[in-house]
Amino acid sequence: MAAKIARLLIGIWVVFLIAYFGMKWYQGQKAKSDAVPAGVAGQPVEKKGFSLPFSLPGMKQAETETTAPQPPVPQVPEEPILPQVRTLKLKAVDFKDVLPVMGTIKGVTEIPLKFEINGVIKQINFREGERIKAGDLVASIDSKDVELKVAYAKSKFNAAQAAYNSVQKQLEIHRKLYEAGAIIKSKMEQIELEVESARYQLETTRSEEELASNEMRKTFLYAVKDGVMGARDAEEGEFVTPQDKVATIYEINEVFVEVGVVERDIDKIKLGQIARVFVDAYPALAFEGVVAYVYPVVEGKSRTLTVKIKVPNPKSLLLPGMFARAEMSIVELPHALMIPASALISSGGLTLLSVIPSRTIKEAEDELTGIAQIVKVTTGYLSSDYAQIIEGAGENDLVILEVQGELKENAPVKIVGTEELTF
Predict the structure, then answer these.
(1) Among candidate residues 332, 358, 388, the one where a domain is terminated
(2) Is 117 helix (H, G, I), strand (E, B) or coil?
(3) Coil vs helix vs strand at 215
(4) pTM above 0.85, yes or no
(5) Are residues 328 and 342 in the same domain?
(6) From CA 91, how far away is CA 422, in angstroms rounded?
(7) Which residue in 205, 213, 381, 402 has the fewest CB atoms around it within 10 Å?
(8) What's the structural domain count of the chain?
(9) Given its phi and psi angles, is residue 42 left (phi above 0), alpha (psi -120 to 50 degrees) or beta?
(10) pLDDT of residue 2
(11) Whole domain around residue 4: which residue ranges?
């Protein structure tokens, strides 16, 4: 009986020891996960191990060892990282806005030259692109048939003239005889009618001769104005009619640049508007002109409005058919504060702008900083690319174009780049 009790007590003691050491092991593992690293804030470092709350035969109580306390490490506060911005310096400039267009040069007057009668071209007296004066012979057609008509008409006229002269003599004789009573009145009236008929015949032949002479003149084609000759549309030996064009004469003391303006830009075009014209033949020259004509109809296919720019051309440098580029002046603003239109912010019907006022800009240790503000501005001229600032921002203020980081109102920012607009 005593042996059973002893074995029971030993079993209970073994279970107690297992439970006790298991709890200590769990507490040690938890302490390791929650422990502060050595040397931080002066915390002691404990060595691994534990002590029993009681003594066993043949066992000694474990001693706890600690390290010497460490002095505290001073904490250095971190400096805040400022947002970085790229800016535009507001500066008064002379601003011009232009509308670029393309077109073709044409003469102020373009006169097609045609013969007034049928015929075969005998001679052409011009070269393409040659300057010509009013009255110069351009071309002629074979005039043999016309010469025969002229000779025939002249012969008829001469015959009619002789017949008229003859009856005139007879009239004088009959008038003297009638006055002497040698002939009756009816005979006198008859000779007067013959004279009248001869006179009409003479007038008819004179008209025929003039028509033949006029037709003879039509065998020659003359320049009607000073100008430059265009391309030949007919050649020597070719049969032509009054519907066939032989050439075109262009008056080029002044020329037109005919351009097309797209529908969205029509409201920017006005009569008298100044324009500068450029051609590839003279890339270094700019020809000044004005808007002279604005067509009232938009072309259906291209959806463009035809505009004519009149350009003086005293040296005849601009020739019809040349390709031209033109810059039509829309507005000129002297001493204006201009910014990219993309920098404006629209909010609740207001126009806002992110700026760094010049008074807040500071430079220290090769670093430029300032205070970012969002201000209300009043704008003047607006285009798709640029905007004029009237009020709200002043010269030398910096307009924020790009930001790296979070931009806050009235917060400091670091300025990493500044540019200026030039025109």
Answers:
(1) 332
(2) coil
(3) helix
(4) no
(5) no
(6) 9
(7) 402
(8) 4
(9) left
(10) 67
(11) 1-34
